[in-house]
Structure formats: C-alpha cells, structure tokens
Write a structure and sequence with these properties.
One of its GO terms (molecular function) is ATP binding. It comes from Formosa maritima. This is ABC transporter ATP-binding protein. It is found in: Cell membrane. The chain has helices at 2-7, 15-37, 39-46, 65-84, 86-136, 139-144, 147-172, 174-189, 191-198, 201-212, 215-238, 240-245, 249-275, 277-303, 308-350, 409-416, 439-444, 460-464, 473-482, 486-489, 509-523, 539-553, 588-594, 597-608, and strands at 370-379, 384-394, 398-403, 424-429, 432-433, 446-450, 527-531, 557-561, 573-578, 581-586. By secondary structure, it is of the alpha/beta class. It has a domain at 2-349: ABC transporter transmembrane region fold, CATH 1.20.1560.10. A hairpin with a 2-residue loop joins strand 4 (424-429) and strand 5. Helix 2 packs parallel to helix 8, helix 8 (174-189) crosses helix 9 (191-198) and helix 21 (509-523) packs parallel to helix 22 (539-553). The longest helix has 51 residues, at 86-136. The two termini are 66 Å apart.
Length: 609
C-alpha cells in the first residue's frame, strides 16, 4: 500500500471531488440502511403486528432515540389505520420505502458522478507526468529499455493503477460505511442475533484473504508480458522492410505468438483467481444467512423474543452487508494487482536522470569564443570509447572528425550536445563547463543533423517548425531554399502543408535529409553538429545535400563527423581518430603530405569510388 502514499499527490488537485464523493457515499450508506429498516413497519402493518400507540410520544434525548422513532412510527400507523383504514397506512409505508430507495440511488449516482472527474483527472495527470519523464530521461535509459515496455507502462499499467487507487477510495468510505450503518441497525434490532452473526465473519475473511495473496505476483507477470509483445509489435512496425526482405515473417509471428500465449496463460490464472473472489464471498454470505435463518427463526417461533417484521428487516440488513463485503474483497484484489502496475509506473517516475541541471545552472544566451574539449575520456559500459581526447574549436571555424567505424566520432557529438556526460575531463563553451549550463540553453546554441533523418508523421511545415516554433511560412520556405529542399517541396500536392508519412517515408533518403537540414537552418544556431549527415545517401542526393550543408555552415562554428572524406576537405582542421584517440590532425593538404592514416583512408575511398 506504500505506493498509494507516493501516488496520492495525483489525487490532491481533485480533492474537492473526493470530498463530495465521500459526502454522497455517507448519505448513500445511511439511506441504504434506512431503506432496509423501513421494511419492518411495512411488514408489521401487513400482518397486523404493529404495536398500538394512541398518544404522540415525547422525545427524551439521543439515548432513547430508537424507542422514540419506533413509537412515533407506530403512532402514525395506529392513527392512520384508525382514521383512514390499514390500506392508507400501508400506502404511507410504501411511499416511505420508495423515497428512501430513491434517495439512496440519487446519492449513489452523485458519488459516481464526482469520482468520474477524479478518476479521469488522475489518469490524465499520471500519463502526462510519465510522458514528461520519458522525454526528459537521458538517452542512455532507453538503450537498456525496450520501447514497447515503456508504452505498456504509460497505457495499461497507468490504467491499472488508476483503477486500483480508486478502488481504495471506495474501500475506505462507501462500503465500510454501508456495513457499519447496517451493523448499528442490526444491533439495535437484536444484539443477541448480531453477536451470533459475528462468529462467522472472521472465518469468511480468512478464506478470502488466502485467495488474494498470490495476485500481486501473477499481475506483475501479466504486465511484464504486455511490455514484451508491445515491444515486438513496435520493432516489427519499425523493421517491416527487413522482415519482408528476408522472408522473416514467420520468425516474428512465432515470437509474437509465444509472447501472447504466455500473456494468455498468465491472464487466465490471474483472472480465474480474481473471479473466485465474488462466488466465494457470496457463498460464505449465504452460509451466514442460512445460519441466521435457523437461529433467528428459533427466536421468532420458539422463544418469541423477536417479531416477524423485525426478523425480515434484520435479514434484509444482513444480506445488505454481503454486497459491500463482496465489493471490498474485489477491491482488495484490485489493489494487490495494482501494486505490481504501480511499481512499474513508479520505476519510471522515480528514475533519477544522471543529466539533471544543477540548481544554479547558467542560462547561456550566446556563443562568443570557442568550444574546448579537454582530455575527455568516456565509456558506455566498461570499455573506454574515448581516451584523453582534446581539441579546440574557435568560433566561426569548422572541425572535421574522421576515422573508421567505432573510432568514437559520433560519441563526440553525443557528449558536446550532452546526451551523455563525460567520464573524465571536460567540455567547455566560452570557458564554462557545459555541465554548469542548463541543457535547454546549451542545446539552443546548437543545430544537429544526424545520419538518420528523424522526421515525424506530420506536415513538412510542422517538421521544419521544430527548429523555430513561431516562424512564418516565408521563413520556412527560405530555410527550405538554403537546404536545397524547396525544389521538391514546391511540387508536393499541398506544398509545405503536405503530410510526409510515418518517419517521412513518403520521401526519398536525400529529400528527408534536406528537410532535416532545413530544420537546423531555421533554428539558425551559432554551432552546427553534423553527424555523418551524408553517409546514407546516393551520389546525386549527396551532392545536393553537400551544397545545402555548405550554405548552412557559412560563418558558423561546425563540428562535422564524416564518413565520406570528399565532404570535409575544406574544413579548417581535420582530426583523424583511431580507437578513441587522435591519430593525426591538420588541414587536408597537410595530412595528405604526411602520408599516414588519413592518406590511406582517402586512397581507399578514391579506389572504392
């Protein structure tokens, strides 16, 4: 139940709805009991068992409230029967019962009405907060987690938590009060009979709690498996071309079927255990009623210490306890299964980002002098990817990082943009360590174009506007022109308002990359980071993209990570990397003259082409 405390802050904004729900539930419980108690005088009128009271009773305080109400009711029944006949008295009793049942149901509806706002508000806020956490957690978090598992947590698990938290709300107020009022009324009718009933309740409670013990464990398996098949689905949708190209449909289908089969088995076990709650509690309730019939019937017929009307009213109250008792047992199961879901949700919410801004982090508005990378080392897990790497990038200059795959080039881009933090050393902008800057202000100084053109299922315009949210259409078109993208965008069916499909799949690789560049152009940052921006393109697309990059890099500080060396010959400094260290550095002509690693790389690419 500890998780309820942790998640209770989501209920606080809706506490007024919770209070109104509690008030309505109090009245619901009260009128539920009064509706059952009101059966007694009606039965007494029917069978002529009402005590004759001709004088209006006097109220003598709370201590004698029960006798006063009973005598007053009998006084009304007696005078009405004498003056207008027993049918009129019966009619009044029926009106009383209908009124009480109507009030009970009105308050039940109002309680549900108010809790609806609380339920859906909690669900919305919980999802919003998890989504915010998902987009603020560092990229390293997702290298360990499957996307489908995160989707399962933000959808199914959050719904499960909402249901279980609100079951507790019902558990605390509505059902216990209904039981409490019914028990008070039962004691008022017959203390002896009520004590007899209470012998059976602990036995029933023990059996019900036994059933619920394994629910949390079984529920956790169900939710984990849901994450597995959602991950498989997400990977399938992302890799359909490869799956079809390698005729691997049957492999992925088998993998998905295995997961859904496990989900099927886990769900069956869980639901059958949950389904056992209601019939078990109902059977135990009926067993209690059967014992009541025997013992109470004895009091009516043999001992004659209880009237028939009182006994039937008592039986109605005893049966009324069954429904809330069943609801409590069901809600307690929901709480147990919600426990597992809550742990999965809280895992995301409570994960601390290793890249949090410092409390006194600096907001840097502009870039003035240089980027300094000083003796940095970095490892993703155990092995160092970069070792004592140092380089200086003055404002307005371009530096190119080249080398074979795995030499640590892209890691530099990830560290400068602070997607990861360095293991040792420091990266400074204008002499300030980037860890002392807010991430937002750091990244606002940078434009990033990656090898994979990451575009969204939206219009050309909205994809470009990520660079500058409030840009005009003219600014968007200007950015497209600089990026060499306007030539194909203007021919699209709706121009910049054309939807480009999931991940921009309606466009070619070169077109997608030019849109990525247009997005960076519109942002107009002082520092550009190009991470193998042309390596995935054909020669024609590469030429167009290269022109676009050159347009964009004019008078701008650039860090270019390049696979194709033809694209970086004009860089102010070329750094040749090997196994995370600097092997050579200098201008293109200087490095060619050295006849070292760079010359070999150039010769290899010349030969390949």
């Amino acid at each position: 139940m500890d998780y309820i405390k942790k998640l209770s802050r989501f209920i606080k904004p809706y506490k007024s709805y919770a209070v109104l729900n509690i008030i309505c539930n109090i009245f619901y419980a009260l009128f539920s009991t009064l509706a059952m108690v009101s059966l007694m005088p009606m039965i007494n009128v029917l069978f002529g068992e009402s005590e004759k009271v001709y004088n209006k009773p006097l109220y003598k305080g709370v201590k004698h409230l029960k006798d006063y109400l009973e005598n007053y009711l009998n006084y009304i029944v007696t005078t009405t029967s004498e003056n207008d006949g027993p049918q009129r008295a019966l009619f009044y009793m029926i009106v009383l019962i209908i009124s009480l049942f109507l009030l009970k149901n009105i308050f039940n509806y109002l309680a549900l009405f108010f809790i609806t706002f609380l339920k859906n508000g909690v669900l919305r806020d919980l999802r919003d907060e998890i989504y915010l956490k998902v987009i603020t957690l560092p990229i390293s978090f997702y290298s360990e987690k499957k996307k489908g598992d995160i989707i399962a947590r933000i959808s199914g698990d959050v719904t499960e938590v909402k249901n279980s938290m609100l079951s507790v709300l019902e558990l605390i107020v509505k059902e216990p009060l209904t039981i409490l009022f019914a028990i008070i009324a039962m004691f008022a009718i017959s203390t002896k009979l009520t004590i007899f009933v209470f012998i059976f309740i602990p036995v029933a409670g023990l059996i019900i709690s036994r059933i619920g013990k394994s629910l949390k464990r079984k529920s956790d398996k169900v939710q984990r498996e849901q994450g597995v098949f959602l991950s498989t689905l997400e990977e399938t949708l992302g890799g359909l071309k490869v799956i079809k190209g390698f005729n691997a449909e049957s492999i992925f289908y088998s993998r998905f079927k295995e997961s859904t089969n496990r989900f099927y088995n886990f769900s069956n076990t869980l639901m059958n255990r949950q389904n056992l709650a209601s019939p078990t509690s109902e059977f135990l309730g009926i067993a209690t009623i059967a014992a009541l019939l025997w013992y109470g019937g004895n009091m009516v017929m043999v001992e004659q210490t209880l009237s028939g009307g009182a006994f039937i009213g008592y039986m109605a109250l005893a049966y009324q306890i069954l429904t809330p008792a069943k609801a409590i047992s069901k809600a307690s199961y929901q709480v147990k299964s919600g426990n597992a879901a809550a742990e999965r949700v809280l895992y995301v919410l409570e994960t601390k980002s290793s890249l949090e801004d410092l409390p006194d982090a600096i907001i840097k508005q502009d870039f003035e002098k240089e980027i300094t990378i000083e003796n940095i080392s970095f490892k993703y897990e155990d092995d160092l990817v970069l070792k004592n790497f140092s380089v200086n990038v003055p404002k307005g200059k371009s530096i190119a990082l080249v080398g074979q795959s795995g030499s640590g080039k892209s890691t530099i881009a990830n560290l400068v943009t602070r997607f990861y933090d360095v293991t040792e050393g420091s990266i400074k902008i204008d002499g300030i360590d980037i860890r002392n800057l807010t991430k937002k202000s750091l990244r606002s100084l940078m434009g990033l174009v990656t090898q994979d053109s990451i575009l969204f299922n939206d219009t050309v315009k909205n994809n470009i506007l990520l660079g500058k949210e409030n840009a005009t259409d003219d600014e968007v078109i200007e950015a497209l022109k600089i990026a060499n993208a306007w030539e194909f965008v203007k021919d699209l069916p709706k121009g910049i308002e054309t939807n480009i499909g999931d991940s921009g799949n309606k466009l070619s690789g070169g077109q997608k990359q030019r849109l990525s560049i247009a997005r960076a152009v519109l942002k107009n940052p002082p520092i550009m980071i190009l991470d193998e921006a042309t390596s995935a393109l054909d020669t024609e697309s590469e030429r167009l993209v290269q022109v676009a990059l050159e347009n964009m890099m004019k008078n701008r500080t650039s860090i270019v990570i390049a696979h194709r060396l033809s694209t970086i010959q004009n860089a102010d400094t070329i750094v040749v990397m090997q196994k995370g260290e600097i092997a050579e550095q200098g201008k293109h002509n200087e490095l060619i003259a050295k006849n070292g690693i760079y010359k070999k790389l150039v010769d290899m690419q010349s030969f390949d082409s």
